[in-house]
Amino acid sequence: MAGFTLDEISTLLDLETSDRSAAQALANSRIAALDEKIATLQTMRGALVRLAEACAAEDTGPCPIIAAFNPAAHT
Question: pTM for the whole thing?
Answer without folding.
Answer: 0.72
